Here is the input.
Amino acid sequence: MSRTAGTSVTETGRSEAAAGGVGKRRRWRNSPLYYVGVAAIVVYCLAPFYWMVVSALRRPSDQFSNSLLPAPPSLDNLKAAFSSGNGFGRALLNSVIVAGTTTVLTLILGISAAYALARLDFRGKGLILSIIIAMSMFPGIAVVVPLLQLFTDIEWINSYQAMIVPSMSFALPLAIWLLTAFFKQMPFELEEAAKIDGCTPGQAFRKVIMPLAAPGVFTTAILVFIAAWNEFIIAVSVVNKNEMKTANVIVSQFTGQYRFDQPFGTQMSAGVVVTIPLVIAVLLFQRRIVEGLTAGGVK
Amino acid sequence: MSVTVEQPDTTKRRPPGRGRSRHEGVGRLAAYLVSPSLLVLGLVIGYPIVSALRLSFVKSIEGIDPDTGLITRTSAFSLENYTNIFKGDTGAVFWNAFWNTTTFTVVTVVIETTIGVCMALIMNKAFRGRGLVRASILVPWAIPTAISALLWRWIFAADGVANDVLHANVLWTTEGFQAWLAVVIADTWKTAPFIGLLVLAGMQVIPAEVYEAAKVDGASGWRTFWRITLPLVKPALVVAVLFRMLDVLRMFDLPFVLIGPHKASVETLSILSWYEMNNLRFGPAAAYSTVLFIYVAVVAYVFVRVLGADIVGRGIERSR
Here is the structure.
């Protein structure tokens, strides 16, 4: 029971309902107030996102119409977003490369560190974990100022590594913390059994722990990828060439092709394109993501 | 929590000599496993912090060489970057950014916590449509901040939907209180659900018997909330609030994209530092970021001390 305490929010809720308090809950559930509450949450969360999608699908000529549905719907904004002048396609690729590499590197380092912190017995564990968590609290700007100077000196400006390496400053503490929590949830008898069967600690890790930890690693990968994909301050600072900018940066810097100063329609459709992979990931893996967020409590 | 109870105490069983070498082996393995991460963190955080600290004390002086007539750049160590922060025109800019950072933090965290707790209370009852609610609550969280800033910029445009709904004619994204408010609204939208999610996780481990007992004792719903739900949910809530505070204190992309860089009404310390850096005034930029860093550290320390946010413990506790 204790192992799964943090993991399955929904299950606990259900078993609780089965155990008792059903009467009160049911009454509450049937009251219109409950539906109003649920509807309020859904509208609160989705209405602005819906507006982004609707605006993306309008014709540029009726961009400023405030009707609830795009009539007639059109893909002109989307085409404009991908038009060659914007470099949006390339920026998407850059985002994938930067976020993907950050995720892979972070996981490799994070898994080994988290395994040691969670399951090996050595001195200074608490201190190391505290230092790592404290590091996630540093304001990004404090890291960016000196790094920009350093990258200028070693000619890393406008390179992928200039975005990937600093990204690890927030991705690594997040990953180590989440993975430590996941590794700790596994019963310690596993390694004992492996050792009795003659495994070295390294073998116990590879053959017993890793296969079982795969779901936790996957959850961490999603959260780290989303965090890296959303990164802005580093990307906007260390890159000034359009071909190297990430999607977030380039969309915020779209310049107007229409008569208005800011091409909102194009930006909204590009925003939808940037967001859709994340929304799909959220829909597919919502349970895992919630599990990771509540285990870590980090953004 | 029950795991270690069943865990056999292996040190007692092993012969002393072997146990020691085994222990050293484990220590070495741990060092191998942990050091790459510490090395990277030292490189991407440790080095920049130390470097920023050094940078913040460097004052570059531009002058003309009397012999050659060329512009020279010399640098010297001085406290000027810091003393300049607090006086004159730069002082006004700094205190404005400090004020914005602080008001954003206090106001957004209070509103977000209130909305988040309400959401958690509703979701805690939710059975039908639980999946829908959970998926929709993750959407604001998943949208990149820069994109959500653009989205709100569009909503708050002069002819945008916000003015249409309110039947108002506010120029939201121009300098003034309305710009500040726009940032608060956009931030609240994005992160209140996140707090709701964390608080919900805390609520769901409260045993139903506690509520039963309260009901038997004749406690009203309001009283149950204040006397049972809130105290029991406090550990989860405190951690959520702490993370939000640290996040808002360093807020950058939302005001940067929604209103713009270097706009007095929404300029935070992060943006101010970035602006200085972008104009190649690295010394002042580093001084601002160091002040922000100290501010964040103080807030975190006070918060952990006063409210007892147990962050590290949450990770370690699981092994017991």
Chain A touches chain B through 118 residues (CB under 8 Å). The radius of gyration of chain A is 23 Å. Chain A is about 75% helix and 0% strand.
